[in-house]
Write a structure and sequence with these properties.
It contains 20 helices and twelve strands. It has 480 residues and is α/β, with parallel strands linked by helices. A seven-stranded mixed beta sheet has the order 3-2-1-4-5-6-7, with helices on both faces. It has a three-stranded antiparallel beta sheet with strand order 10-11-12. It is globular and about 80 Å long. It binds nicotinamide 8-bromo-adenine dinucleotide phosphate. Nicotinamide 8-bromo-adenine dinucleotide phosphate binds next to helix 1, helix 4 and helix 6.
Length: 480
Amino acid sequence: MTATAQIGVTGLAVMGSNLARNFARHGHTVAVHNRTSAKTKALVDQHGHEGDFVPAETAEEFVAALQKPRRIVIMVKAGDPTDAVIDEFAQLLDEGDMIIDGGNAHFLDTRRREKALRAKGIHFVGTGISGGEEGALNGPSIMPGGSVESYKALGPLLESIAAKAKDGTPCCTHVGPDAAGHFVKMVHNGIEYADMQLIAEAYDLLRAVAGYEPDRIAETFRTWNTGRLDSYLIEITAEVLAHTDESAGRPFVDVVADEAEQKGTGRWTVQTALDLGVPVSGIAEAVFARSVSGHTDLRRAARELPGPKSEPLAPAEARAFAAQVEEALYASKVVSYAQGWNMIGKASEEYGWNIDLGAMAAIWRGGCIIRAAFLDRIRAAFAADPALPTLLADRGFAEEVGRAQDAWRSVVATAVRHGVPTPGFSAALAYYDALRAQRLPAALTQGQRDFFGAHTYRRTDREGSYHTLWSGDRSELRTD
Ligand code: NBP
């Protein structure tokens, strides 16, 4: 076989086949391969006319079809299948070749794989790809990690197929070395969980407190989508709410079982945040909220517990309340993005990735699930101050959230009074209040820790570490 292909894709399920078509449609010759070769044949039979595909039945044929340095994109199920495919191909490759894992791998697996392949002179590029099936075909947001050298050979190809932001910039950049790409993809998914939870809470409040029906709520979301909340998720929320189930003749949202599922990237984000010591309460509450929804046994057991007696608001009050919900949703969203960025910043320091925080907002402006007008503001905030400690310290965001806070507090209080669970709104507000507090009760926590465990404490009025002799005369010892 002559080496004519600029890139190869192995793993031709939904994501891989669409990605391969995207490369071909952009004028690249693409070698295609799948463990079960019927899928390779089906792809070429159905879409061969879209561009230049080189189908390969075996791994050897596939590798032989690729120009050097070879670029192989793996789009197989994350986990053991990825290791199996890497093992199969690594032995057929030469120094300088590249393996690009576009699956949703855990970033620690990517670190392990990158290290092992680096020892063989092969570049391993863990790459986050967001946008689902549609994005893979028409332009995803792409987050490649790996070496700077690999990006030189790979970047132009990836940028050619990536989504483009409104200003024409490709939604793809070199995130940082080894697993930086898969890490930011994981946090992207965590933020997506938080966004979805906040939107769900806004819906719940509009329904239970304002007394709106789904079509009216769809209309409200459509209006919000013309303002600062303009985003893909708000847009599709309006579509879902406006949909009527044909067979039941009722709103679609009323016939779907209220148990949210998850594939695991939100959970990974929270687990990793705990290890890094970064509070991502918005994402954590979103993961837990899905988990609570799925515990039908617990919910059944608790269904008869008493709640407050409350009536939906009168129409005029409901309109004012809906406007407050928009403020609460926006402010809570700013907090969850602030937490997500904080997490990326911390990991970047911890692993020495040197991630450009503003660039992450730039590449999420198109193609991915959390694409939103708002991301341009985040990009601008980091452009103005690359060392911004938190988005909440950016003047523009601080002013907006400050203006929203009365409405935000009122919405959370109303939710509590009506017995509507709003863990996302409440946790975001608690984080905001914790960050702005002059004094936190953590001083008391330190006192308790010192009392029962001699864990020591620091003082506000002098340097050093101290312990009080609680069971003795309560005198204080300096311990450092
Ligand atoms: P799947 O995750 O369903 O994986 C199916 C593919 O993996 C098939 O090509 C299958 O080959 C191959 N495969 C398996 Br399973 N075990 C294998 C093995 N031991 N050796 C070789 N190949 C093996 O596909 P997908 O939904 O297209 O997703 C691909 C990747 O992209 C995943 O990591 C996913 O998490 C990620 N991702 C998905 C989305 C999305 O919206 N679906 C979005 C972003 C990222 P076969 O045909 O021979 O069984």
